[in-house]
């Protein structure tokens, strides 16, 4: 009987811990990242923010890599459609490129990279949410269906060597995140 009570109590606390992590921690982290990106983008909630490359003297965390950089953007859909345009670096300068979309609870719902579908070419995505118009189709663009209205976009660039970071930085600065405006 004592073992059964112990099992019930530990199962209960395990379930509570799991639910807390699943429903709250991701939302807290997303909220902090969202507020930080919005602040860095002068209040614009659908704008890309690029972390600075690792250079001598820039050590926000131990063991920063001088050939990896990230870009982040909140993607707030509401009733809108959001467009993301990104140039994929060529093989001569880049070892890897990826784009990932996350729900507010940090669940990844779409990811693509330069080694799979699409290869090394310019990419255009349009993100639709649960309240977005469903009848929109943009030729040449990749449709991404979001299960939620609050999302995050993360782009990752890995240069062949740190010497190619200036070229990667030029490509990163061309990334666009904006609301789709339907024209008749």
Explain the overall architecture.
The protein has 184 residues and is of the alpha+beta class. 26% of the residues lie in helices and 31% in strands. It is built from two helices and nine strands; from the N terminus they run H-E-E-E-E-E-E-E-E-H-E. The chain has helices at 2-40, 165-172, and strands at residues 49-50, 68-76, 81-86, 94-103, 108-113, 123-128, 142-145, 150-159, 176-179. The longest helix has 39 residues, at 2-40. The model has no long low-confidence stretch (mean pLDDT 80).
Blueprint of the fold:
Blueprint: H1 2-40, E1 49-50, E2 68-76, E3 81-86, E4 94-103, E5 108-113, E6 123-128, E7 142-145, E8 150-159, H2 165-172, E9 176-179
Parallel strand pairs: 6-7
Antiparallel strand pairs: 1-2, 2-8, 3-6, 3-9, 4-5, 4-8
Helix-strand pattern? HEEEEEEEEHE
CATH class: Mainly Beta
Strand content: 25-35%
CATH homologous superfamily assignment: Domain of unknown function DUF1254
- Computed CA radius of gyration, to the nearest angstrom: 20 Å
Domain count, please report it. 1
Distance linking N and C termini:
72 Å
Structural class by sheet pairing and helices: alpha+beta
Which labels suit this protein?
184 residues, alpha+beta, Immunoglobulin-like, five-stranded antiparallel β-sheet, four-stranded mixed β-sheet, 2 helices, 26% helix, globular
């Amino acid at each position: 009987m004592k073992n059964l009570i112990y099992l019930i109590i530990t199962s209960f606390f395990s379930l509570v811990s799991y639910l807390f992590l699943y429903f709250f921690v991701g939302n807290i982290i997303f909220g902090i990242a969202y507020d930080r990106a919005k602040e860095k983008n002068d209040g614009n909630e659908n704008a890309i923010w690029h972390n600075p490359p690792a250079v001598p003297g820039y050590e926000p965390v131990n063991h920063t890599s001088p050939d990896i950089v990230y870009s982040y953007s909140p993607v707030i859909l509401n009733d809108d459609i959001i467009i993301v345009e990104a140039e994929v670096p060529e093989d001569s300068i880049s070892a890897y490129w990826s784009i990932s979309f996350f729900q507010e609870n940090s669940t990844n719902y779409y990811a693509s990279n330069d080694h799979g579908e699409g290869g090394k070419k310019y990419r255009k995505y349009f993100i639709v949410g649960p309240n977005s118009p469903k009848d929109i189709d943009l030729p040449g663009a990749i449709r991404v269906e979001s299960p939620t209205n609050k999302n995050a976009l993360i782009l990752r660039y890995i240069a062949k060597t740190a010497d190619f970071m200036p070229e990667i930085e030029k490509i990163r600065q061309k990334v666009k995140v904006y609301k789709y405006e339907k024209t008749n």
